Amino acid sequence: MSRPTPLRGVHEALGATLTDFAGWLMPLRYGSESAEHNAVRQAAGLFDLSHMGEIFVTGPQAGQALDHALVGYISALEPGRARYTMIVDPRGGVLDDLIVYRLADEEFMVVANASNYPRVAAELTERAGTFDAAVEDRSERYALVAVQGPKARAILGELTEADLDNLKYYAGLPATVAGREALIARTGYTGEDGFELFVAAQDAEPLWAALTKAGEPYGLLPAGLSARDTLRLEAGMPLYGNELSAELTPFDAGLGRVVRFDKPGDFVGRQALEPLKDVPPTRRLVGLIATGRRVPRHGYPVVLSDGGAVVGEVTSGAPSQTLGRPIAMAYVDNDLSTGLAVDIRGSHEPVEVVELPFYRRKK
Question: How much is the pTM?
Answer without folding.
Answer: 0.97
